[in-house]
## 1
Amino acid sequence: MTDPLLRATGIGKRFGGLTALADVNIDIYAGEVLALLGDNGAGKSTFVKVLAGAYAPTRGELLIEGKPVNFSSPKDAATAGIATIFQELALSENLSIAENVFLGRELKRSVLGIPFLRRREMRERVDSLIDELDAHISDPNAPVGSLSGGQRQAVAICRALNLNAKLVIMDEPTAALAVAETRKVLSLTRRLAQRGCAVVIISHNISDVFEVADRMVVFRRGRKVAERRRDATDHEEIVSLITGAHPDVRALEKTS
Ligand SMILES: Nc1ncnc2c1ncn2[C@@H]1O[C@H](COP(=O)(O)OP(=O)(O)O)[C@@H](O)[C@H]1O
Ligand SMILES: [Mg+2]
């Protein structure tokens, strides 16, 4: 196998007296969708927040393409090619799709020292991203406020692609979506991986996970208790890993 895009080694995170993560080792590869599973409070969101630069780990190290990185803010992680799509999407309702995709990094041209937005170029870029993702959004000038939940996810994904993200993190992207919209977001997620991105997705929906993920990691009480390839496991096993009924998890939890 090739080297991982991102390697997390021995990651621990404490909040005061509470250990949210302990000794988590995970490799993430370009071109794959990796799902994180686990009960509420298992540590999934904390782990992705460490990847996204939102939390500094208490212990452990992150390596990108073999080189240690130290994020002191989400901006640092973004600069390193990590884009995060949180459930509460950070989109501006009253701005257009194109404006949202370019938010904070608009293309500008200076005429006699006066900055002008390169609107046409931005629109064309957004059009081609929408096309590439087959995202079915007809008008990049429409305000984001007029879009459905699934279309908003698509805009957030276009934004990540426009940032040239190498790793896209999605925390419960389909939690608030209807069935048809969920299907679309899952197929967008696959397309991101086909494009060579590494994708980390958190989901409570095991059917969704089996539809979209190449590999699955199960968290329990802040620890990684299992890792499976999709083709080497099934729903039942994953559920037993999450609940702790699986013999591997029982053995692990007896010794620790
Ligand atoms: N900012 C925080 N301050 C204190 N405790 C936190 C914070 N974020 C998460 N936790 C705790 O860390 C543990 C893991 O939470 P979380 O990562 O959100 O789990 P999950 O996403 O798997 O539901 C939980 O016990 C949670 O209460
Ligand atoms: Mg969470």
Note: Residues 150 and 185 are 6 Å apart (CA to CA).
## 2
Amino acid sequence: MADDFDVIVVGAGMAGSSAAIRLAQGGANVLLAERGAEAGAKNLSGGVLWGHDLDRILPSWWTEMPVERHVIRKRFGFLTADSSVATEFEDPSWRKSPYVAHTVLRARTDAWMAKKAEEAGATVVTSVPVDRLNWEGRRVHGIVQGGETMTAPVTILCDGANSRLSLGTPIRPNERLDWNATELGIKEVYHLDPARIEERFNLGEGEGHAEEWVVGFFPEGIMGGGFLYTNRDTLSVGLILNLGSLYGRKAKSHDLMEQFKLHPTIAARLRGAELVEYGAKLISSGWASRPAAFFGDGWMIAGDAAGFVFSNGLVIQGMNYAVRSGLEAAETALAARSAHDPSAARLAEYEQRLERTSILPDFREFEGLDRIKWNPRFYSAYPQLAAALFHELMTETGAPKATARQALKAARRAAHVSRSTLARDAVDLFFHL
Ligand SMILES: Cc1cc2nc3c(=O)[nH]c(=O)nc-3n(C[C@H](O)[C@H](O)[C@H](O)COP(=O)(O)OP(=O)(O)OC[C@H]3O[C@@H](n4cnc5c(N)ncnc54)[C@H](O)[C@@H]3O)c2cc1C
């Protein structure tokens, strides 16, 4: 019997919609199934979109997509309970069209992407939570939803970090996600008049500011980073928390969010802004959260579902990898369709493509990143050390001036970090960041 579709894509996030657009452009009969009432309704990113891969399917996309602001500046720093140490980066190329990065709100961008998939010829269905993949032995032959089976020779899984459809199957034999390879993202959106945003963050019209912080004052050894991004008339503010360090602790994630927002540096940015939205979502943690395989008979897996998120404190990048992996899966499915061969041997091209793009080389190169990134000293001792050092170097107290070496020694002692530990962590960071 003929299949219902050439390809079924599960999940209309950045990965799924990108795949569906490319497949429809390539002439495939494609179904894009999304559980949310609308594409984007269940999605959440910080979010800075490094979107140049979208050029491949949607030329000049940034002129049409409902993006918020183009980022002209990034700030990165450490927060102690009451101080902050930061460094800032501005680059002239970031100010020029086509811009390198945009702040986005996913409810808007994902709805737009799904519409583009529809316009390209894909069948897009929302409010359709796919129950499971239709396994025939080790082969996937479409999906099952509400007791109904829809078949396709190839199914592309783009169902996000908490990929329920792959858990407990040959794709991810474990029934549960590994908490140590999963992070929790919490985000709130605050309304603020565009003119006030531009004045407060020293921005021109349409320009955006992005900042990321290592938070050094959470209780009970909880590790996490914070972010704040400017949108057109809102601010996105949130935390990325290490799930393993949250487990079994008394502190709740919303209390941590309150503590972050009450920090003097963050509170000053949010002054007068009004909360309009909040949400939370799991985030994959790169190589450690990869599945057992990226393809098999009749299936491929892309985006967060495949663990393709890179976050090292300086940047959080997942949407770009989602777009690119979705596109590579789509190209592979188009080739399989032409060859009338959806076998694993044919779909192995997907992994070869991931190798040729930066995706797999990037993740392999940064394999040790999680160990470095979640070093507890970054979330307590080092923010204290940085604050003590800069206090000494930048404050006139009437006491004799310390040299940088003396100031570092005093700051190290105040933060209880030995010279050898500091040297070891610095070298580790240098080789893995
Ligand atoms: C707080 C936070 C901040 C972030 N900041 C950034 C950032 O600044 N920059 C960046 O690049 N990345 C950022 N990320 C990561 C980024 O959001 C993800 O990498 C990206 O969304 C992955 O896209 P995706 O399409 O793979 O998955 P998702 O965006 O999660 O989309 C998955 C889709 O599948 C649907 N779905 C799930 N299960 C089913 C089912 N059974 N049936 C049907 N549909 C289903 C979901 O509803 C959803 O629409 C951030 C993430 C978080 C949580």
Note: The chain has a mean pLDDT of 94.
